[in-house]
User: Fold this.
Amino acid sequence: MVLSAHALSLLVPVSDADVPGWALVHPQLSSGFQLFFVVSGFLIAGPFLRDLIGSNPLPSVWPYAVRRLLRIGPAFWVVLLAFAIVIGGAWSADDWIAIITHATFTQDLVLHQSGAILPVAWTLGIEALFYVFVPAAAFVIRRHSQTVTAAQLELWICVAWALSVAWELGFSLAFHAPYGSQAVSPRDDTLKLFTISLPGMFCLFCPGLLVAVWRVSGRNFDGARRHPGATVLAGCGLWLITAFAESAIGGTFGACLGDQLRGVAFAAVLVGAISWQRAPGLVLRSAAGLGVVSYGIYLWHWLVIHGIEIAAGKPAPFGGALGTPTAVGISLLATLPFALISWYIVESPCQRLAAAIVHRPPADVPAVALDLRSPPPAAMP
Assistant:
């Protein structure tokens, strides 16, 4: 989704991309990061929520931290190295600051740094902060109460969701600036410090957190289990309807409503996906294969698309009736080799290294990570 949005923005003339109907869907493609946050809320917080509800010992922080760091760090650092090589000797103080803040995932906390190297990298700063927040919040809750019910967690998540929306909406209105995710592109760095932050973006994790609570508390998704495909389609339908609702309302409040509705839509897709019990077909296996290398695609696609634009010798080189599918197809095919190299040379070995460091088997396997309903065996974190 994010690759498609950037391919259209950089490689297709606006006059071709923004035809009636498509003009509504086109901006929705950039919401791929929201799906990423929903899934993170489910997967990352799931084990902690499970142990809070079950009054079990919380997951060990050391294995958790090692796995999280080695999962997102090395592949991203390789991209930063590529950036440094491209710059060559033309280094400035700002370049050094940008490299350091990005390498430490603090780019969203420092003025002028969010998006200074890679526009997509701001999400990694938010993700890293969420990684820190989850065990810290679980520890505070456990210190306060040994036993926590699913209903309490649901209430707290909903309150946090509302507070996060109020934070984001309040600062957007105060600065007379775009709401939330729409504030990523404008270079209003003061606004970014408040809106492109974990308090402002926490609402995007909340749908995934709620799905995790429902799953670990034994909530039976009977309807989704019987009709997982229909549940996924319902989520996709809501995602499309959101485009019309956001366009009809417009402005800051339209963008705010759009972010929340997309979160619900992606939660429905997630529920359908984890409820799928039939053997996957060719389409699902292909999607799963792309999912394995999706992090590499996310990291490399921006540089690759810019390379395509430079090689073409002109901006927006793909016009005409087939401009949109051509731009997306070429961008994906050109990015896949980088993503595959990232997976086989960097990401997969780093996962094995993390398992060796903590002396436990790899846990970053979707099928394992999705099974949150019972405590893991003693060998698992």
